[in-house]
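Quiz preparation item.
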């Protein structure tokens, strides 16, 4: 009888293999989250979402009045908490000082959301305080500094995550003219900076994963109704709420593919442009980033 029962159970398991229980989504209750560029647009709504889940949110921006208003709103809500730290990411020194403040006061960080960004479509070249092309400086170099300077805090919070808010509007990096000094080059600045984010993510993800840090990049939503998009005179094609839903879905996902670029429907890709998968291009970008910021890859 016993042997017959064992054989029957074996047949059942063969025909109906055990199904692993669904993994629970990641919760940010009681965790610490840094969202850059969170005094307006997508970043502000993400800060509200994380706080509503019970997280302590580090709010970043240039405008102290807007930043403090968001912090006061979150702290008065009775759910989660927040702190504002001002920094102008057009200055490498201010980014480094910002990172030092976060690292000093936050020894354990659970999520870094590199969301701060700017975009221009008037064909005019702009530079940062350090003389770097402005979109490359704010959209990319600031994130490069933060992922490295805050790596110890993220390692202490492992398993932790870095989410780089990139864009589907990427363009190959011209390593002979990264700073867009050639005539007519300014128009590719935004796409180049976003490609740099995705390329950095692909290149650094394996090393960070060894410390328990999962790094991804993503396209939040197409031309959301943000101040930036409207300010450029463009017709929005999606809502900020669409971007929030996509980003939060990935932030809460039980598992993510390290180094991947996630589109709106959630499917991971290597990068938007094949250049990001090229080891030679990755090595060039990493070397250039260390040179421009004084922050080497760790």
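Solution:
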């Amino acid at each position: 009888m016993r042997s017959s029962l064992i054989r029957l159970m074996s047949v059942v398991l063969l025909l109906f293999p055990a199904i692993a229980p669904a993994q629970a989504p990641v919760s940010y209750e009681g965790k610490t989250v840094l969202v850059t560029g969170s005094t307006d647009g997508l970043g502000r709504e993400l800060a509200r979402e994380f706080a509503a889940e019970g997280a302590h949110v580090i709010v970043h921006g240039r405008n102290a009045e807007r930043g403090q208003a968001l912090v006061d709103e979150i702290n008065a809500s009775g759910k989660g908490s927040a702190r504002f730290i001002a920094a102008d990411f057009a200055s490498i020194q201010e980014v480094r000082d910002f990172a030092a403040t976060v690292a000093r006061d936050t020894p354990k960080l659970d999520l870094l959301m590199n969301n701060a960004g700017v975009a221009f479509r008037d064909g005019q070249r702009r530079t940062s305080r350090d003389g770097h092309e402005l979109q490359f400086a704010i959209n990319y170099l600031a994130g490069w500094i933060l992922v490295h300077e805050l790596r110890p805090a993220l390692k202490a919070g492992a398993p932790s995550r870095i989410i780089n808010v990139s864009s589907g509007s990427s363009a190959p990096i011209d390593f002979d003219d990264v700073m867009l000094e050639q005539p007519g080059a300014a128009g590719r600045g935004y796409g180049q900076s976003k490609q740099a984010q995705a390329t950095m993510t692909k290149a650094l993800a394996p090393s960070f994963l060894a410390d328990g840090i999962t790094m991804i990049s993503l396209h939040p939503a197409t031309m959301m109704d943000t101040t930036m998009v409207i300010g450029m005179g463009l017709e929005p094609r999606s809502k900020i709420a669409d971007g929030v839903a996509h980003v939060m879905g990935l932030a809460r996902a039980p598992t993510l593919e390290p180094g991947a670029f996630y589109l709106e429907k959630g499917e991971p890709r290597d990068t938007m442009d094949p250049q990001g998968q090229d080891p030679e291009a990755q090595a060039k970008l990493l070397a250039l980033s260390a040179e421009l910021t004084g922050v080497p890859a760790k």
